[in-house]
Specification:
Blueprint (H helix, E strand, L loop, with lengths): L2 E7 L3 E3 L6 E3 L6 E8 L12 H12 L6 H14 L26 H19 L6 H11 L7 E2 L2 E2 L19 H11 L14 H9 L5
Antiparallel strand pairs: 1-4, 2-3, 5-6
Helix pairs in contact: 1-2, 1-4, 3-4, 3-5, 5-6
Length: 215
Amino acid sequence: YGGPMMLQVTGGRFTDEATGTTMNMGASDVMTAVMTSVASGAQVSGICITALTSMAQTRAAAMSGGMTDANITAANTAVGNYFMMSNLLTTQPIDMTRAGSGSAIGVTQDQMNHGAAIAAMSQSATRLGMTTSSAFVTSMMNDASDGTMNGMMGSTQISMGGGMMGGSMMGSHSGTSDLATDMTNFMGSAMNHSGLTSANMNALIQKLASSNGTL
């Protein structure tokens, strides 16, 4: 095979940033990443599969024509720009729960932004009382699919369970000002062992706080 490639992760266990507990991914939750055409037989390494790459994949899939090279590039760039990262697929997020991870040699602001965005989503899930933070990631993926972070998937409000029916509904600011607040709260919490503070993340926090949600 040669062409665009989508990677998927299902059924995993992970340490939740906001609570420190080990959680299972929800049965219906799938994290993804999508890259432009790979040549047959080529070797590719260093690709991240995170909440942010997952948002970009659902955005690319929902664009006219689906996951073409042009749409994949546009979606990865748009989500990367939204979270102030220059290369979404290959920017390894720092582990915000690991002591001193923010001051390790060679760590970039993009890596800090990636890690902080993931931790903020974990904080959002905790605030909302969700049993697994992967369900919040699924909601963010659905929100990103139409290119506007407003709690809607097209004209339909998103269920926080990840589907379109039942359960509590996603707020219109979940991916903008609410996420900025949750990022600030995580940075000031006892679960943040990175050595970074809200001041280190101020540019991203302010960007999210003032965003109109457009990817």
